[in-house]
Amino acid sequence: MRSDNTIRTQVSLEKEEYQLAKKEAKAQGISVAHFVRMAVRDKLPAKDAAPWMRYAGDVESGNPNSSQTIDEIVYGAKD
């Protein structure tokens, strides 16, 4: 049963994408629809989060000490 805030939509996937999604959903014991909803939620920005947080964890510097020198990584070498 859907709530008043739920909108039904249709999404087309490539055959391989669907097969992988179906396999992963089965492994998690959930429906493909629920798997897709979770994937969409995972890509949406968190409510009330700072806009830049959307990209947190997307960049890898290769420097194990990068958290200690984040300004240099983000803004470049200090002048």
Characterize the main sheet: none
What best-fitting shape do the alpha-carbon axes yield?
Answer: elongated
Q: Any low-confidence stretches, pLDDT <50, length ≥5?
A: none
| Strand-pairing-aware structural class | mainly alpha
User: What would you report as the Rg, rounded to the nearest angstrom?
Assistant: 19 Å
Write down how many β-strands occur, each being a DSSP E stretch of 2 or more residues. Answer: 0
Supply database-style keywords.
single chain; 79 residues; mainly alpha
Would you summarize the structure shown here?
The protein has helices at 15-28, 32-43, 70-75.
Report on the structure:
By secondary structure, the chain is mainly α. The chain has a domain at 13-53. The protein is 41% helix and 0% strand. It has three helices and no strands. The chain has helices spanning 15-28, 32-43, 70-75. Helix 1 (15-28) packs across helix 2 (32-43). The protein starts with 14 loop residues before the first helix and ends with a helix.
